[in-house]
# Entry
Amino acid sequence: MSLTIPASVPTTEAATSATQKSNRELIEQAMRHSWFPVARSADLTPGGTPQPATLLGSQLVVYRDGQGRASVASRRCPHRGADLSLGKVHDASIGCPYHGWQYASGDGLCVRVPSIEDQSKIPPKAKLQVFPVEERYGLIWTALEEPIEPLYRLPEWEREEFTWLQADPLDSPVGVAVTVENFRDVAHFPFVHQVSMGPTPEVVEPLQVSREGSHVWMFRPLNAGTGEWAGDGDCEMQYHCVAPGLSSITYDYAKLGRRVVAGFPSPISFEHVKIFWGVANATEFTGAPIEENLRLEEMVYLEDIPIVENNHPREVPWDAEIEEFSAPADVFTLNYRRAFLDLARRTEETLRARDTAE
# Structure
């Protein structure tokens, strides 16, 4: 039996209050008010070379000042438009490569103009646009506009200590939702992951999926099989997505302990992502070293890429502008779409309420 479930079906009471914008417009607005990673923590050293990043078309610079504080700012120097990713990082500021203007790491205020003898005469409005910063899971996170929800904290990762190892990011010409759906789709395993997973059943058992707010969960047993993980034995997998862009599996082995693989796609544009992803081992995990788990999970990612990058469209058709058909095995990804749309509508309601209050 197949199910026809348009992505645009209203799923909560909030759906009725956001009728003036298309679903895509609401989704894009929600992403601007959401946290996304823009760099790996390990790539930023105190006072080291700043890094360029792009988030939803916004050109950013990411750096760690001499005091060790991570900062995210507009890449454009507000003096004459120089690229600050070519600049120099100081103790508590970043300097422009063109005229040497320096901007404070915290609030972006201009703190030095070399061409002015009396620094008290720095233009009082001279300021670099800065963005909020969080550092978590081995990544630097930011949001282009005030976040509607706090940065993810997954309860299954809070119960014990984990050591994270972030992989080299992947560049992929598809959208955030398509990327997340691929991470958590289970029906493609026997066709795409024959090498990494070995033979897996084509028929997907009934999936038990739950959703609350932006979160979607599913528990599923993993039989060791004959793939690369056969030696680890059976385990239980907890699938967990958080809209807009966190997708993880926590593996719970009866004898080995717990390990994680997680993807954090970051939108360069609506149909282009930089996939930050990594693995984590619980401190008590007695299975393969974290580097080996990273290698094996990378096999899975690389098997997916040539398939997903040739999908059409390159992002979920949020307004049902392209017909899709779904099957029961798609219940997890359909719930993720609903969670994303719910987030988008909550974002719209929150912004409208703020405008009314002002």
